[in-house]
Amino acid sequence: MTATWTENEVTLLFIQCLKERDKTTFLSIVDELQPYDLAKQYQFLPKKYQNKFLLFLPIKDLTRVIQELEQENQLEVLKKLGIEKSSKVLDLMENDELASLLTDLEPGQVEELISEMNMEEADMVKNIIHYPSETAGRIMNNRFVWVPRQCTVREAVDKLKKFAELAEYLNYFYVIDEGKKLIGVVSYKDLILADMHDKVEDIMYKRVIKVDALTDQEEVANIMSRYDFVTIPVVEDDDRLVGIVTVDDIIDVVIQEANEDIEKLSASGKAIDFETKPLVAAHRRLPWLIILLGIGLVSGSIIDGFSATLEQVVALAFFMPMIAGMTGNTGTQSLAVVVRGLVSNDLTLKQVLRLVLRELWVGIIIGVTCGLFISVIAFIWQGSMTLGIVVGTSLFITLIIGTLAGTIIPLILYKFDVDPAVASGPLITTINDIFSLLIYFGIATAFISRL
Amino acid sequence: MTATWTENEVTLLFIQCLKERDKTTFLSIVDELQPYDLAKQYQFLPKKYQNKFLLFLPIKDLTRVIQELEQENQLEVLKKLGIEKSSKVLDLMENDELASLLTDLEPGQVEELISEMNMEEADMVKNIIHYPSETAGRIMNNRFVWVPRQCTVREAVDKLKKFAELAEYLNYFYVIDEGKKLIGVVSYKDLILADMHDKVEDIMYKRVIKVDALTDQEEVANIMSRYDFVTIPVVEDDDRLVGIVTVDDIIDVVIQEANEDIEKLSASGKAIDFETKPLVAAHRRLPWLIILLGIGLVSGSIIDGFSATLEQVVALAFFMPMIAGMTGNTGTQSLAVVVRGLVSNDLTLKQVLRLVLRELWVGIIIGVTCGLFISVIAFIWQGSMTLGIVVGTSLFITLIIGTLAGTIIPLILYKFDVDPAVASGPLITTINDIFSLLIYFGIATAFISRL
Questions:
Q1: What integer is the mean pLDDT of B282-305?
Q2: Residues in domain CBS (chains A, B) (predicted)?
Q3: Which residue in chain B has the smallest CA separation from A281?
């Protein structure tokens, strides 16, 4: 009925239903909407209809709407629902969603929220929020189907039917032994093709790809994208199955990790989006800027140290921003290659050497090209062959050093288990600034008598 | 059997089987390995066993291995197989994988490869490679299950069973009318829960979320991550169902798009990874560097224009790198926020205004803080109150302008449908260099009599 309706038309229809208390039509529209769209509709509605909208929604759809909201709005809606209804919603929520809702809340608030929940669900969630952030344990949920090893295919199918409503994805189910140890996996396809009387144990796939609960979420994303899985089982030390990570969360992880890399590369501080308030955004960005300001002053004092040279040949100042800028740019380029390369590569020593050697060559090629180019320009512009040679040689050397710094610094950080993206673009740029000024003025001072 | 074996142990076992021509054991190991691992094993093997390995593999597993390889290796293996076997492999390959294999090949090579293929498959692939790159049409495949509207649930289940081997994901199947028009979708869950005699038409979900074949792949990724789908149907103008995009490809898209953003933000040029040869990498990076070199010379000529001022007060040079650097850094920060924000937000005019206003405030807060800070330092360092005021005021103004430039330039580009990440960090940095030098020396020249 609403198949071709626009969002606005749906909103108007909702308002009409709410006005006329027409719950039947209301529910028939709800039935046709995806959770994301339903949540959007809720937020579109004028304030005065929102409460009634929540009242009309069955618990199941309410849960879906809440899962799509931002944390702030989730808490607001839960409060409106009252303890009884909200505890039912919390019971129905996916554990990973619930865990992320509870993240950053005061312990008191957490207790209050989950106090009325079903014990088992509450324990599961408490368990999840104990894992360190950004690990498999933190993003896993318990909406999966498992069967004991002695089960037949028919019994497995029956269990699957029973849990069809609950489980997020039915692509695989997991086989466990008496100690809850994960021993196999069966894909739904295999189940369809198998004989009803087969034992699950005989058709299961035993070399199960799984992750430990403490595995970094980025590593989990790598594994899932490598194997094209829709879900991956999460185990603890003893191979005990404790949850699954689903592909929808992995997409969020990939986006989040890419954003983090970009934030660090651009030193823009943690998590600033379109909704962040100015004071918060400024506060998050300032620390880096102050540090960079300090390092910028180091550049200043280097120039100060060479001020005698500079006073004699003011033309040296003309090429200062270009040399510093170019060194920074080439360093940032190398850095970006390394940071993103590390996302999908494991590094061996051999590969590190190859990479550094490659970048050395790139530096030399870039250095020769740009160095020659600028020598000629400097000569034509300022009419001094010596100045041309000084500028060209400096650029040649600084470009090689800049390229190597942009490669080696993040690799060293990575080796010491520091996230290489911390060696943010601006940091590399600023370090390269200092190098390039020292080299430039050093060479210029050596040639000062001829300039 | 091989459940707990390490990769090396599996390789050794493979070598043994190949030596002893023990195909039975060989196939039982193959059966336990994921395609990715099987392809890795193939690449681990000493050259002399690789051909025998390919000979031993059944076509189905051969296809899986080939799909995991890089284009270069894919072509090599296909050549080794000979026309007959390779055409069978191509028939079995997922169309999107095949399409990406054929990308960048000469038309002659394409014809040669697909000449022996099954007509229908070949047409499908030819169709896919006609879509512009980075669109839904280009990454879709035809491994989906569809049923006509009059079908019953039992018939649908039967069809599903028949296609279980072929279809990548069985999470949903699509309902079409007489004209192949997509009119509904049924999830596997709903099918399990439905009565066998129900008509598919009655249990299907009519408000189908779908994408046009020409939709940008980034938009497709957004929609899929919003709705947590595992597959999404792709239609042409007339709603005719032409394929599906699967979640595994979407993860690749998300990673690729993030890499592209980072490449552009760092002006590192197209696609440089750990394997790229030095000459190629240098060639890809040089164009940007040359452009930036040119713009750097503009900065130089600005300083040249103010050389009278600079000659009188050489101390002005000390703060030059810091002011230019800080303006560049704050611009990059704003740019990163905008570029990544645009990945998941659609922009309304209201939101643009809010964002620009927010960044203006951020610029003012950052400007006041850093400006005051540097005034004091400049005064203490150089003992000149006027110099302190000149440096502080300049930094205040340039930080505001830098922040706004980093926000507004990518937004304008976005408005004109240019990818905002093209306004790469280095470009913004270089533009901000020019602004900051003009302002700094402009203010200094105005106060020159007091300096």
A1: 83
A2: 140-203, 204-262
A3: B362
CA distance A37 to A60: 15
* CATH number assigned to the domain with residue range A146-262, chosen from the 4 options 3.40.50.2000, 3.10.580.10, 3.30.70.100, 3.30.110.40: 3.10.580.10
Looking at chain B, which residues constitute the CATH 1.10.357.20 domain(s)?
278-450
CA distance A375 to chain B (A): 12
**Which residues in chain A land under pLDDT 50?**
1
Chain B CB within 8 Å of residue A310 CB: yes
Q: B1 in helix, strand or coil? A: coil
| ipTM, two decimals | 0.79
Q: Which residues of A touch B304 (CB under 8 A)?
A: 315, 318
Chain A closest-CA separation from residue B199 CA (Å): 17
CB contact under 8 A, B333 and A269: yes
CATH level 3 topology of B278-450: Tetracycline Repressor; domain 2 (1.10.357)
Put simply, the answer to whether A345 touches B318 (Cβ < 8 Å) is no
Helix (H, G, I), strand (E, B) or coil at B69: coil
3-state SS of A285-341? HHHHHHHHHHHHHHHHHHHHHCHHHHHHCCHHHHHHHHHHHHHHHHHHHHHHHHHHH
Provide, as residue numbers in chain B, all residues whose Cβ is less than 8 Å from the Cβ of A358: 276-278, 281
The domain defined by A7-139 folds into MgtE N-terminal fold (1.25.60)
pLDDT digits (tens, 9 = 90+) for B234-271: 999 889 999 999 998 898 888 888 877 777 776 665 56
Burial code (b: 16+ CB inside 10 Å, e: under 16) for B412-447 equals ebbeeeeebbebbbbbbbbbbbbbbbbbbbebbbee
